[in-house]
Structures
1.
Amino acid sequence: MKTGLLTVAVALSIWAVETAWAVSPTAAELAEARLWAAARFAGVQLAEPPQGEAASGAEPFFSFTYDGRPSVEALKTWEFQRESRPGGARQTQHTLAWTDPKTGLVLRCVGIEYADFPTVEWTLFFRNPGARKTPILADIRALDIRVERGPAPNREGASSEFRLHHHVGSPCTAEDYRPLETVLKPGMTKRIAAAGGRPTNSDLSYFNLQRSGGDGLIVVVGWPGQWAAEFVGEDESRVRIRAGQELTRLKLLPGEEIRTPRIVLQFWKGDRLRSQNLWRRWMLAHNVPRLGGQLPPLILSASSSYYYEIMYRADAASQKMFFDRYLEEGMKLDYWWMDAGWYPCDPVGWPKTGTWEVDRRRFPKGLREISDYVQARGAKTIVWFEPERVRADTALAQEHPEWILGGSQGGVLNLGNPDAWTWLVDHIDKLLVEEGIGLYRQDFNIDPLAKWRANDAPDRQGMTEIKHVVGYLAFWDELRRRHPDMLIDTCSSGGRRNDLETLKRAIPLLRSDYLTPGIAQQCQTYGIASWMPYFGMPLQDVWDNLYLLRSGLCPELTLRFDMRKRERDFSLARRLVDHWRQFGRSYLGDYYPLTPYTLDANVWMAWQFDCPESGEGLVQAFRREQSGDESARLKLYGLEPEAVYTLTDLDVPGATRMTGRELTQDGLSIAIKDRPGAAIVTYAKRS
């Protein structure tokens, strides 16, 4: 077996060289992931466990209790089968199945091993094929492993501690997406969890555990519900990681099946910034939704919703007028965005959700009139929905209170109810077709956890959440099946549902509801880009301030300018859009922070996006309001030392040339006279 693994490692090393990526998986990284999969998925008995694994290959990498017995004991007496077969592109699917001979409970672990990345993932499924309820199944942790500290550091200044890198979620504060670091000391437990049932409401469910010796493990929990993760410093040399749905204590009914969160591990060695770019590349290669096999394009959208905040005042004429004004000002749009309020909601306003029909008083010809209008001018429509939140005195609450967790008084549409799910799929599909909607936008402005848990019996705790999550994901899967050329936008009071399962199906066009321009927007990009390569943010009526405009640049831009004011000079905004069209694809390249994260106003903040395949990239730098420094020297990353790069400051005529070695060792000097001010420098490798 050792010979076979060596052959695999050599083949993978050749592939890595042939790709010529600046951020390529190394042979050692790929081999470590293969070893992990061989031991855990394929059942290969290794002489030693994969590097960093404290547990033997025979011990499961998850845990639960069943009828009061811990899984590590119970599974020893269960019947076991395994199967491996080719999966999707450069994937192998492994299925491990255990059957309890006493009760018939079947546990399946469906794992994916990636050939092109040092990445493995899995999901657990529990099924009751019998005619009776099962005993209590509880404390299901889809991930339960121990990680060794690794070899002693071999370089000066290297840490011998475990360092957990994690991020704030999107709770709508100035600190949205802030990067955090926790040193895991012996005896210490760091517990991080979702809040209120929305997965990135308080914290992101993405983690990077850095070990001594220059390597680490990315751990991600994909669950659009209430997840929890614990990182326990058991002693000086070992950390235990447990993660899964926060609360499970339930019996399965005859014929019933449940699933767990998706768990992803990505192995890395060397530099941590490089490891985040390995993750970004894996996201782009295997997760970000595609159109016609291609990654989403740059999207420029616009909306009048900021000025018609109570959207029942909008009508077809106002939407056409706003759209036309952007074209008149030379800003050609890809999408026209109609946010909340196109349904009957007067006099309460847009939050009165639950009657998903077009308000024919304001839109007598439906939204199709607007869709056809913008399509004839080269754009499509984005339309906002929020089907999971149902207000009292709306159609759903009145006609189908049995579908609502909260009944006729309103609450959460129960997507675990088959009748409710079928109605929702067919009704939304009908609206998409009849109204000519080009992009489906789904919001979620309610914390569902209390409703979910109140609906559970004592012996069914966690079941309503599971069924809702499964229904939500199946709803989007069915919409994508029926509309393969349509993107979905995920929104949950901004970015509060940006877990991995959601981002495999949708893109977040509104990363946060904290919309204050300037420093907060810079910090959001700084943080979110480590994990999510495609995201968007609106520019909130800052048409005449280049610093604020540049602070909000993203792969997707939404313009929210008051186009009724014809006296305004939109030349800066037009210039910004023109430049963004030229360099915007660089946002999907490798991401490197060039300065520390801070909300302070007396410093510079800067980052780099690099596309080594094309030899292009960009640097964004911001001199904040109270910074006394008129210039900064920034050392770049990822460039070829001997290559010559042509650099263009978008605010300075002409161009300069520097070698990759000069840019990475000496640094790029950028001067900004204005305070505050923002600079963008693009670069391209000379052929």
2.
Amino acid sequence: MPSMPRPPKPASKATPKRVAGLPTPQQVLDFIAQSSEPAGKREIARAFGLKGQENIQLKALLKDMADEGLIDGKRTAFHRMGGVPRVTVLRVIEIEDGEAIAIPDTWQPDDATPPPRLRLVERGKGSALRAGDRVLARTEEARAGWRAHPIKKLPTASEQLLGVVEIDGAGKGWLAPVDKRERHASPISDLGGAEAGQLVLAEPAGRSPRAGVKVTAVLGDPLAPRAFSLIAIHKHGIPNVFSEDCLAEAELAAKLPLSEEKREDLRHLPIVAIDPSDAGDHDDAIWAEPDGEGGFRALVAIADVSFYVRPGGELDREARKRGNSVYFPDRVVPMLPEVLSADVCSLRAGEDRAAMACHMTIDAQGHVTEWRFTRAIVRIAEVIAYEEAQARVDDDRAAPYLANLWACWRALASAREKRDPLDLDLPERRVMLDEQGRITEIRLRERLDAHRVVEDFMIAANVAAAKALESKVAPVVYRLHEAPSREKLVALKDYLATFDRKLALGQVITPGLFNRMLKDIADESEKALIMEAVLRSQTQAYYGPGNVGHFGLSLGSYAHFTSPIRRYADLLVHRALVDAFHLEQPAPKDDLPPRSGLAERDRTDLGRVSEAISTAERRAMAAERETIDRYVAAWLSARVGEVFDTRITGVQRFGLFATIIGLGGDGLVPVSTLGAERFSYDEKAQALEGEQSGIRYGMGDILRLRLAEANPLTGALKFEPEDSAGMAIEPRGKRELPLKHKGKHLAGKRGRPGNIRHQGRRK
């Protein structure tokens, strides 16, 4: 009687029953699928207890299975055909909802079969991996698709490097970095046709640093217009190219008809959009009129992006990955294709547009007493620049709809004053370019009442959105800003003590406490220093589904509702409102996802996507800030040798960091330039002190410094004392500030007095 084939050994340590004969092909496939380790010929033979001649028969069986297309791989590690090896090398292709998505590093079943997408399950909170990373991982096929558990991170085979080609005297090429934190150039083994002075992309030529790098793409002149933002885009891995599928879906969505039967018709109202003069899109507009009882009826109309961008489609996938639009002086990297962001979704004057309308009733004291949300059709009466709107109001040339807006705003401002949110009047740098993209001026943006009008209307609508969703017990993506940590408050307390000012930590810390502190300071120089210190004490705002309030705005519930063209968080809030208030409008086109409400995965878990878009926002802010720094350095490169009033923003053992007052741009003052004497570093006080002279340089001191270097490629500046002999100079701050201010310090990171554009919209 022939022997029965033996079953495979399971993935656990249990030993299978031994029976004579070869396993069946199905038993081999089951063993490969269940094994927690690479399943090669040796492992299969051991699992089934095969010896001698049976090993030869197993080899033939495995060859037959491979020929039949049942298995694939090598003798040391087989896997099911069309599947993924149990342990293999994966390459991360994108970060989705905070999780890394990867594909096999080498995938060659056939050109028609796309590689499987594996969701990497990492330990800890958030993804530490980035697109392009390679990992050795253990894989598994689950009902929801392939998953992988990283074992270790591997050297990146094609990690892109951004730099400028330099040729030394011997004719050898070097890649000079464009990141000011990198101080060493890399040898170039293959120029790839690049020439000296060109901005290039490169990748390691081998695993050893000695192998150098090879140029993979020539990007052109690093000092040409638009190059600075290009550097930031590549450095931070900001997605800036839409796929053909995404663009095709955008074109299809743009043709969706507006059904007047299912939308509230608001085209009769003189709704206006007030925006920056150079705005490329208009996603919010406002209207108000007196209600006859001392209060106002108000409307905030927001582009109905959720009607066009539906969960599950390519548009949504790309917007989710980007998280937000990124604004540079010379370009915008939009969250949505331009056919939507700059055309169909943009609230243009005189054109019918789909909008999500927030209707509010505001009493005479500026409190929002009622609200409701509808989907509407609007026709914007006018798009006005902030400066133009302000000029009309100031000159009594304002049309009734502008006068009504200002009147309603005065009521909102009254309520805001009683709420007493954090009031830090921080300068915002604005880079002015000509039509060729060349810098014409860098100046601080003027803060007008027109800005405050729009801001307070937007805040009112954001609060209404959050509370409306809470009233329906619906999911909310909150905009969260927590109170300062005790550690930062202690550091602020120590800093204020150097000004003979006290901060009692036993009291309830509120924004109003900081406002009163600043209001009591008459000296403008001292006020600027303390304002920066208060700013550094604040936590960073973020998105999340668990409400902790917004400390800076003194609000208990706050969500971003007003900018869905450029923020994915707002789009999620719109979708939640669609569900909560039954505003669904199915797409009449079969090729588009039918629903415009929340996706099921977001309805059950908003935490993951909230974390992902918070990370994307921080990435955008870093890229925008660094680009501004490069523009500032380019602007100052023609002024090397000039002397500027600067303020110390950081102190380290190797020198001082200073920023030009009124312009921004941080630069290093090497300790070697401060004089011939030895300087000791007081880490606790964040100060450098001359051992012979006793001259002390601390945070906030005002110095006259000469600009020694300005590097537009890295955004780095270098200063030296005004005295060309290199003698230490007495900090001006010692003469202007109270005597006890000597040795003042601030524990924590150095800050930047200049904020990047659109900072006000990120509250």
3.
Amino acid sequence: MTQLYESRFERSLDAMTRELLARGAGTAAELWVFEPEPRRRLIERRLAATGVAARVRSAFKPLLHVFLEEVDREGLGEVEIAYPVHHSAAPNRFLLECYPLAGLLDGVASSFRASKGEDLYYELRLHYLDGRVDEMRVFAPNRLYVDHAGEEVLAPTGWLRLVSPGAAPEEHRVETEFERIFAETLRIAAAREWGDVEPFFDRLLVEVGLPADDTPLGFGEEVVSFREALHEDLYFSLLELFQKKTGRELGDRGIRPGMIVPDVRMSAEPSLSISIGEGAIDLPESPGLVPLAESRAPLSEASVHEELARIEGRAFEARSREGRVVKAVYRSGTDAAVMISGGQHANETTGVVGALRAARELARRPGAHFSVSPLENPDGYALHHALRAANPAHMHHAARYTAFGNDLEYHLDDALYERELREKARELTGALFHINLHGYPSHEWTRPLTGYVPRGFASWMLPHGFYLVMRHHPGWGERAARLVELVTWRLAAVPGLRAFTESQLQLYETHTGAKGFELVNGFPCDFTEDERTSIPLRLITEYPDETIGGEAFLRGHSAQMEAVLAAYEAFQVIMADEASKGSAS
């Protein structure tokens, strides 16, 4: 282990409190920080005891927190909201930032419109059932700066406003410890000489202590988590920093810096430690096997291998960068061959179980012809299990890619590592159709310190139900459309799945201001002509599974299983029809 940096940070709220106490009794102030409500209320009480009147608000998602903490929602009948618009942010940025407000205002008519000008205030009109109408202005403190990638961004920030009767407020930005930890991490990484040979390290470990508990919102899987938000921004910002250093475009999935690991944990005081680690991630102890159809949490790697061994067929394998075995099974039959895979992005876990369940079902059928590789990225999967130990409800996108730090599908090195498994599966099966099971966040995904909206992933930042991506070669569009029609028709019959999707889509559309999806039998679908791989038909499932557990996890992998079975059967119908037409002609 090579230590690069270690430091503790003062909480900005403590520093602002000292400043207010020094001004003495009679002082009035408003403060905005990245702290959960209990700590903010505690400081208010302490200041009030000395004669200082202060209101401490959240700099993160300020409108949502005002509704949670200040607005009288009893007897509320209608809400009109005008949200800010700024030239350096997406037009819907501040509409997104108040998510999932429309869902929390269940039974209350709510409308959203863009404000004119660039005043960073939300304007509210609250209509009550007794005829009362209240108006409010809610400040959204932000700063405009050029980030590590050379992009101009508008980002939430700390703020202090002193209020004096008869005078204009005295106010200024306050750099919070939340922001300082982020900035210091990027500074250290940018200043270091990493050399020219990728990967630059086995693991870049960024250990952060943050005194901030998560706050569940009581709506779906939604939660306010400063720790999770910081993990996401640290991970993707560091990835972008290495993309820029190596002359790549932002978002290039072929970058191979090594494994970037932000580990943001609850602590008594803010702290940051940056180090370079060597070797593989240690695997956690394997729990006992649970019947697949009853799984309510991600399986261990050992359990995946045990379940895969129960499927009769020809076993084949590859090796990961960290030396783990990547396993698959090929079952020869008379049907048209199909490749089935899961776990490409290792924090998307329902597809792992869904692939195994579907393969087990298919193996019972005469003539079934398929390969199944349920866990393509075991190095990322090991990291995901390690990170979940402290934060089981976080998305952990640091575990998304391989130990190289790249997306295995974009790994172009002569030594294929995990990707070799797909090449072997294609050679064994001769398949023309690949079903690739994926997932995406089950609750809001943000990058607050780089403009709030995840760069390059804006359409994935809010859950919008079970989503299908159909990629096909030129000339295969008609088959692709028919296949999706047949698959979604069957998915619509799965109890509760279509209603679940429609509910999430409705809230998604409210807080993005646009639809943007083609619906097939009630499910959002995307069709793309793409020749990047040799397989002409590729169906990618996207279930909102990152962070879910319990019954929600069970419903997720059941939906993935149903999608595989529906897609397999639809492909047989399509190929049989084409064979029939060919013989008739």
